[in-house]
Amino acid sequence: MNSLRNTAVIAAVAGALAALALNTLVSPARGVQNELVPPTSGIFTGVQYSQKLGDAFRSLASCNKGATAPANVNGSAVDGLCWIDDSGSPWVVKQYVNGGWAVTGYLDPSNSTFAGLVGGGLGTIAAAAITDLGSVAQANVTISGTTTISGFGASAPDGTVKFIRFAGALKLTNAAALAVPGGYDLTTAAGDRAVVTHLGSGNWEISQYTRANGVPVDASAVGKPDFTFADLPPLHLRGDGSAVSRATYPVLFAKLTRAQNGTRVSGNATITGIADTTGFGAGMPVEGTGIGAGCTIAGFVANTSITLNSSACVTSSGTSTVTVFKTGYGAGGDATTVGLPNCQGRMIAGRDPSGTNISSAGSGIDARAYNSFGGGQNGSIAQNQLPNVAPTITVDASTARWNTVAATGTSAQSGSSGSFGYVSSLFDGGASGGGVTNYASKPGLFAGSITAAATSINGGVTQQAINKMPPTLIADCVVRVTP
């Protein structure tokens, strides 16, 4: 008896499969929402039972395509049940999840294409040192809180893309685990958005970052110096040397400073292991772990070390980040600010690392250093800046009138007139030195010429150059190029 029953069941299943195959071959694609669970009671012929199995298979094959939601698992929907909603165009692919229908994609019947859904709702996660984005199912995630983030975890599949919105201000630490555009730490603001991609092994990259205020992530420290409009354009500040908040302008802060590792020894003013000293100059403030307040650069060895203005500046030993403020703290600034370049009344000159074109001796400007300034609008000429010359002076006496010289008895040397006499010499030295001798004292013209040689004017001093440098500020001259 059992053998006959088993044979009947096998025949019914075989018949259902055959009917399904035949229906697939001869019928156009169509959606059905038949009961998926075969009956467990009642009397059916083999053909009837196979038909019910075929209807169930057709419903599964068509993803329960129809204009209304299927409820065909014993009269209801169950988690994971598939449905193609064809009530509109494109068709919407849905799946039943915990009492609701989640959209998983779209089908376009006009060109037989599928469009996957990116999103799946909105997720939220609190900021943490490692903010595990893989623990959030949604592609659109809001990160709340202000904790500094150094990575997004390794639990998400490789290639996962997340669309992030930040609810507040926090720091994204640039590192291998979190590659930030520009290569420096980035401070977020409420409403900022980012697109991040998991590269594998817990390493993520920020491929796009959009600020809520529209400021680009990578901004130049100094813009064009020329500006003639009545008001500043949006997102610009005047280059007036003022102090601005580091927290308000984090990108500008990163551009106007240079942060790199350095090794310090307590009580030693020299910090070694400084890889890049480009643009450094005396007087630039320096900050970092184990470095006291008010410390500045006194000197440096190119791409090797910097020396601070006092050995008391270094209060502990170790290797850590050393930050140099290329434009200082700004007028009236402090440890919370960074200075703007001061272009007021100054020409802009390109930085000259070799000092060939602008020498500090002639201008008072360290042309190697960013934001160095000097020169002057006015200046006094010193004696050693006057020309040193040895001219020859010639006087044509033929056109010169000589007045009568009245000699007293004591001054007259000799002559035919006791009243006047004559002058023996018009020049010191008489005939041997002056060139005019025994000329009668009377009005008249002298027919010869007088020549005297001067040894020098302004002699006996070491000549110095005149400073011709106008008020000048040093900045890098750059050329924008495209590949």
TrEMBL record:
The keyword Signal applies. This is Tail fiber protein. It comes from the Bacteria. Residues 1-21 form the signal peptide. SUPFAM superfamilies: Receptor-binding domain of short tail fibre protein gp12. Keywords: Signal. The keyword Signal applies.
